[in-house]
């Protein structure tokens, strides 16, 4: 699932991007209306996360422009505003939810999950149910250990796209290239799947 985040607060945008990436989402970050608009025309997104109150303009104005361009991408607004007028305008534009600052990133993850059905992810004879957090091989539940589980499900959630090794490091107890290579090797042997090493950059599970 690919998300465009529009948030001018650098610390908050980086925190949310890291949190959502670890949860398996692909995130593009914009800090101005112009950046977000350009990205929305260049790429296709499954969800917009727009801050309403920006130094120049607003997420409401951007969504109005996108709706006029027949962009129907689901949108969740992030706001520090308590004025119901802005919230009402957001819903009139087709927003599916809003979240008020300050908030726990876990709450945002829950809200996103509640709005989108979680599909079963597959890789050949391997299936993963993200909601139940159950991994199966040939239909049978399998336990591959906590570290390997985190690494594999992170790769699987972005199947077909390279996952940077820096992101995979966050799945490890002790961070090193050697530890990551060992984890990948164990996954490949245990699950009998192919994981491609993009030398010096990261790893990818190719779409079948």
Describe the structure.
This protein has 208 residues and is α/β, with parallel strands linked by helices. It contains eight helices and twelve strands. The protein folds into two domains: 2-115, 3-Layer(aba) Sandwich (Rossmann fold), CATH 3.40.50; 121-204, Arc Repressor Mutant, subunit A, CATH 1.10.10. The longest helix is centred in the last third of the chain and has 15 residues, at 177-191. The chain is elongated and about 55 Å long. 24% of the residues are buried. The model has no long low-confidence stretch (mean pLDDT 89).
Rg over CA atoms, rounded to whole Å, is 19 Å
Class based on secondary structure composition and strand pairing: alpha/beta
CATH superfamily of the largest domain: Response regulator
Can you tell me the CATH topology of the largest domain? Rossmann fold
Mean pLDDT: 89
Care to count the β-strands?
12
Taking the alpha carbons of the first and last residues, their distance comes to 18 Å
Shape call? elongated
For the largest sheet, list the strands in their spatial order: 2-1-3-4-5
Share in β-strands: 15-25%
The percent range for helix content is 40-55%
Residue ranges: pLDDT <50 for 5 or more in a row? none
Top-tier CATH class of the largest domain: Alpha Beta
Number of helices: 8
Helix and strand string, N-terminal first? EHEHEHEHEHEEEEHEHHEE
Q: How many domains is the backbone divided into?
A: 2
Largest sheet: 5 strands, parallel
CATH architecture of the largest domain: 3-Layer(aba) Sandwich
């Amino acid at each position: 699932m690919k998300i465009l985040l529009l948030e001018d607060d650098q610390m908050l945008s980086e925190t949310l991007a890291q949190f959502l990436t670890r949860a398996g989402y692909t995130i593009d970050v914009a800090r101005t209306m112009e950046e977000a608009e350009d990205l929305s025309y260049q790429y296709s997104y499954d969800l917009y996360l727009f801050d309403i109150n920006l130094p120049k303009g607003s997420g409401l104005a951007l969504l109005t422009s996108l709706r006029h361009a027949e962009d129907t991408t689901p949108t969740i607004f992030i706001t520090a505003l308590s004025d119901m007028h802005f919230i009402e305008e957001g819903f009139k534009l087709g927003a599916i939810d809003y979240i008020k600052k300050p908030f726990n990133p876990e709450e945002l993850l829950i809200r996103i999950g509640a709005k989108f059905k979680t599909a079963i992810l597959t890789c050949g004879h391997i299936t993963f149910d993200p909601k139940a957090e159950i991994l199966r091989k040939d239909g049978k539940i399998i336990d591959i250990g906590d570290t390997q589980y985190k690494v594999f499900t992170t790769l699987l959630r972005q199947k077909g796209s390279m996952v940077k090794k820096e992101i995979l490091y966050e799945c490890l107890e002790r961070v090193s290239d050697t530890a990551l290579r060992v984890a990948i090797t164990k996954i490949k042997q245990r699950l009998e799947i192919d994981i491609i090493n993009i030398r010096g950059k990261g790893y990818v599970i190719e779409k079948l």
